[in-house]
Structures are given as C-alpha cells and as structure tokens.
Amino acid sequence: MISIINDAPENVAAFNATGEITKEDFENLVIPHVKTKVEEFGELNYLLNLDTDLGNFTAGAWLQDAFLGIKNITKWNRAAIVTDKEGVQNFTDIFSVVMPGEFKSFPKENLYNALYWCQNGNEVEE
C-alpha cells in the first residue's frame, strides 16, 4: 500500500510504501497527487520511503514502471528514494543517469534529510 506523507514540505510529493505495492496504488494515489504538485509548482520534487520488502512489489519491475509513468506526465526536479535495500539504492543511481533532474538514495535513518533535500536541493549539515 502507498500512502501520502502529509507532513512533507509543500513542494514535495512524498509517499510511504508498506506491505504489498500494486499498480492500482500507483494509478489511484501517486499519479493524481504528483499531477497536483506539478500543476501547483511547475516541477516535481518526489520522495518515496520504501518501508517494505522488494518481494512485496507486484510484477517485479514496479519501480521502473512507476518512474517511467511519472516521467511522461511531469517535470522532474529532484527525487529521493529512502531505503536500506542496496539493490534499490543501486537502481536509483543507475536511473539518475537516464532521467532528467536529480535522483538520490538515502538510508532510512535519513528520511528527514531526504525530505529537506527534496524541498530545496541541500542536505542538512550534521
């Protein structure tokens, strides 16, 4: 299931993924929310907090399909993937080469830093 992270910065479309993730989650929640943000801000700052096992993604290539679907309807600016799964971090790094905008992976303990980076392009100094 995908849910909106309600306390994210106003210019960030932020989502939490838990349990099983389906194409319908993406079509019914993510795309409409992303469209609203792009219409309001003219660009997309996107965060996906993966709080689920990769085995819970239906159709195996869900992440790739999701990003490609969003690519066709938006203007990417920054996108953060928050996960401790190394495979997803590697995918994000590879994906950043072929997509417009900036893509970055963050470990789960850095969710706040990822939200801050999505909002303004800077990381919190520690």
Automatic annotation (TrEMBL):
Gene3D superfamilies: SpoIIaa-like domains (3.40.50.10600). It comes from the Bacteria. Signal peptide: none annotated. It holds the Pfam family SpoIIAA-like. This is STAS/SEC14 domain-containing protein.
